[in-house]
Amino acid sequence: MNRPEAGSQFVAQVAVMSILAVATIVIITLLIGAPGASVEGFEPDASGTTLETDVDEVTIVDSTGTAIEMGPSHSRVATDLSDGESGEAALSTWVQLDSEAALWRDYYVAQYGDAQLVLLLIDGEWTGIHTDQQSAIVSTDVTNHDTLRQVGLEHDSEELRLYVDGELVDSEPLTDGDTDIPATDSFFGTVEEVRTFDSTLEADDWHTLHDDPVAPVEPGSETARLMFDESGGDETYVVYHGEWTELEGNIEWTDGLEGTTLSEGDDYEIDAPDNTIQPTQEGELAELPRAYIYTSDSNQFIAADTLSRVFSILLVSLVVLVVVAVITMLPTLSGGSRSRGR
């Protein structure tokens, strides 16, 4: 084979390999979705085992299941909550937006069950929606983006109420009929905690939720959350790696964890095989009825995660292209050398 023929063959092979590589990149990009927000430690549209803890008619779903759902067109930190016998429900969460631009992105903060008690940010306003057999919409302006804010939403059989930093900011009566939930964008910011209740709360309770938050957990830390049964029982719960574990009396840990007796007011320290779990607050968290908290160990949202994976795929594809091209051309180059030798 002469040099022009070998050169033409090389160009043709590189062109074919380039087309195949580009097609592969496009297909992979479509499969993983367009760049959007994700949660550190969790994949977008996270799925996993659902942990349900039924206490006083409250069901909590842990954050590796339906509690976190992220994707290119919506962002949601959701709670699965069954109404109490009174038909009431409430949720409270702490949220911080990462920029002023984030004020104009729409996203869910929390919702529950089929009844859809949803907290969103729409056009720079905190918006609460209750939608099912009866519905209502409440809203208020977001005053700033660089501060962790406590936002709450509750409903009884008559109205829907929205709270910001422990204060009631809007209320609307429930009316017959359903209400559509608008589409949401990717979330940019931090959600520190979500609490759900199977009843509405008193004004003092909302003040307590704002004044005594659970201490924030640094993304990626192994800090545990500790609390007591607020109804006066002896049960103690600790969340480790996003899952609730009930502690009673002398603790007999499963999964290789070892601990000691926990009592109210003590400084708790539970030793794990490779690290120490140090609860963030001593004693009782708050005197609230049927209050249960979940939070993930990694709760910082990373907006560029999906985009970085796309770039990684592009880089790997480029390397594979070069390697395949070199391997493909070895026989041609070898033949050309032998021809010159003759």
TrEMBL record:
InterPro entries given in the database record: ConA-like_dom_sf
Record Gene3D superfamilies: 2.60.120.200
Keywords, in A-Z order: Membrane, Transmembrane, Transmembrane helix
TM helices/strands, residue ranges: 12-34, 310-333
Membrane found in the keyword field: yes
Protein name: Uncharacterized protein
Classification lineage: Archaea, Methanobacteriati, Methanobacteriota, Stenosarchaea group, Halobacteria
